[in-house]
Automatic annotation (TrEMBL):
This protein's UniProt keywords: Secreted, Signal
Major place of residence: secreted
Pfam family, one: Lipase
Protein name (record): Lipase domain-containing protein
A single GO BP: lipid catabolic process
Similarity section: Belongs to the AB hydrolase superfamily. Lipase family.
Sequence ranges assigned to domain Lipase in this UniProt record: 64-322
GO MF entries: lipase activity; serine hydrolase activity
Superkingdom of origin: Eukaryota
UniProt subcellular location: Secreted
Length: 340
């Protein structure tokens, strides 16, 4: 099955990515060159994702000059995925969740959209290391200037997960600084698994704690454990509840539905930290057969315990709100089994 997925995704990458890019509305694609000098940081300085200040990544220290930026506050550093741009729904949903539910958080987007388009294998995937290296250099300067690394949380979706991995890895190996938490939302599969097939994938050694949410494992997303704690909602694979069973057009909204569930789940957890309790198990089957799923339970998403380790499972609703609370631990007879 995995080999079929690999072939399928190779065809997607070579034949479809340029078509998709060409179909995006004029003015949406970044009018910037395919180089790190044209990567931007977007700092959200208002109450919605429509309020922001863009600065070149190479001038990251200008963040300290922006009204509202507080180096002593928690900082979320979000990294988007393949063919995404700053106006993408995934970014808007994640950013608004933090701005509305977690005031006092510095919310920053790493806008590498100029290097995330074109051929997946020949351009975007290979650019992840370049982007991560450049981001690590600037992050090192920010930390040296007073940004609190202990309160710095890197979150990447899909291809952005591997940019996050390279950023954290470079920061650790070159600058001797370690990111405390890195969250990978359905990290991209093609070119990264098995490790080193083309590029190195995000892994548990990149940060003190790496939590991963799998929603399209073996499809667009990583097929195996890759973090300190890996979460597998509904088994972690396509088709996630509520997603179309037939979605043959590659990279269409329907086709990406399961892959996108990862950021939808995380954004919901920012607003409701106890929405997604998850149970430790060796497999989805064993999770479903477990009569005591609350034992060892941790929350998936925003409030994930940094002592969590291994694989965790849960079930979700098919539409928002996706979180089922404690019901999500009882896929068979939840109403009769939940402990009072």
């Amino acid at each position: 099955m995995c080999s079929k997925n690999i072939v399928y995704l190779f065809l997607i990458s070579f034949c479809v990515s340029e078509i998709v890019a060409d179909s995006i509305a004029p003015g949406i694609l970044p009018d910037r060159t395919n180089r790190v000098e044209d990567i931007y940081l977007r700092y959200y300085n208002g109450q919605t994702a429509e309020d922001y200040v863009d600065i070149p990544l190479s001038q990251a220290n200008k963040l300290f000059e922006i009204k509202g930026f507080d180096q002593n506050n928690p900082t979320v550093f979000y990294i988007h995925g393949f063919i995404e741009v700053a106006q993408q729904e995934s970014i808007q949903v994640m950013v608004n969740a933090y701005l509305e539910a977690r005031p006092g958080t510095n919310v920053i987007l790493l806008d590498w959209s100029n290097m995330a388009h074109g051929s997946y294998f020949f351009n975007a995937a290979r650019n992840t290391k370049k982007v991560g290296t450049a981001a690590a250099e600037q992050l090192n300067k920010l930390v040296d200037s007073g940004l609190l690394l202990d309160k710095f949380h890197v979150i990447g979706h899909s291809l952005g997960s591997h940019v996050a991995g390279y950023t954290a890895r470079e920061l650790k190996t070159k600058y001797n600084k370690t990111i405390k938490r890195l969250t990978a939302l359905d990290p991209a599969f093609p070119a990264f698994y098995p490790d080193g097939v083309v590029m190195e994938h995000v892994n548990a050694k990149d940060a003190d704690f790496v939590d991963v949410i799998h929603t399209d494992a073996g499809g667009y997303g990583a097929p195996v454990r890759t973090g300190t704690a890996d979460f597998w909602p509904n088994g972690g694979k396509s088709i996630q509840p509520g997603c179309p069973r037939f979605a043959p057009i590659p990279l269409s909204d329907d086709n990406l539905c399961s892959h996108w569930r990862s950021w939808r789940f995380f954004a919901e957890s920012v607003r409701n930290p106890e929405a997604f309790p998850a149970s430790p198990a060796e497999s989805y089957h064993k999770f479903r057969e477990n009569p005591n799923p609350e034992e060892g339970m941790v929350y998936m998403g925003y409030s994930c315990d940094n002592k969590a380790e291994g694989s965790y499972y849960l079930t979700t609703n098919s539409q928002t709100p996706f979180g089922k609370g404690m019901d999500g631990l009882y896929p068979k007879s939840k109403s009769n089994s939940i402990k009072k």
